Amino acid sequence: MALSSVGPAANYPPGIVGVHALPADHHEGPWESILTPPGLKERLLGTSLLILRHGRALGQLNGAPHGLVLLSGPPGTGKTTLCQGLAQKVALALAPRGATTFVEIDPHAFPSDMLGEGPRAVLRLFSDTLPELAARRPHTIVLVDEIEALAVRRSTASFETNPVDVHRATDALLSGLDLLRRTCPQVLVLGTTNFAAAVDEAFLDRADLVLRLGLPDRDTIAEILRQTLAESAAVFPGLAGLADDGDLVADLAERLDGLDGRRVRKLVLSAMGSRPELALDPGRVGADDLRAAADAERASA
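^ AAA+ ATPase domain-containing protein, sequence as received from the core. Prediction below:
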């Protein structure tokens, strides 16, 4: 999903891949599209609003928050999409107090660790760049995908890597987070990881909230299928009725049990592309085509 940028990402230091002003109409949708266990979204939204709305006051308390939330879980469970949707929901809730800056960071865009340049770039990001961006608006949300690339678990770092580089990179991130929290209490940092066991213990200890997104159960898979089929029918009316076929949806959910939400959502697209005649006229996709596509997805998992 394309987002309006405050300025070209190329104008910012390495690591930043997007800077956006929220709320924005075209950023609606991601929050609702991800299905989660009951209460998870409420807790995530509540914690985020608490930190951003009352961060300065909370900083005066013992056990003050670090302004850090971590989402973990297997690939395809919607962690990044949920964070993008969260940014929009938070921005809408806080809009009466001003707009929100949403910053996206890619850890793999930092320079090589050679000669310590990578750790220095990380520290500059948190000590200089992010505070500068945070000064523009009352609230700032920073998303760091695949946080384990920066917060490497030092206690189990492989001897195949340079342990000094590992320590420097992780130390730079932790120091940067601590500095950012002291100077900018109106900033919330969101991290995602596919491998929670690879994240450094000190980083986990700083997190105010750690949530795990697991693979969808059959009921959730069925709901994802109903949504996807209904959306597809709005574009290709010939598919109307498939989403309301409870037996079909239940059968497909059973066949897809154990797959992540991303692959479940691609089922209809997979069926449409399974034969040239369906690709030319996707409205002709039927129940048997969906079952065959589900079996193919299952076999390739």
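The chain is about 45% helix and 10% strand.
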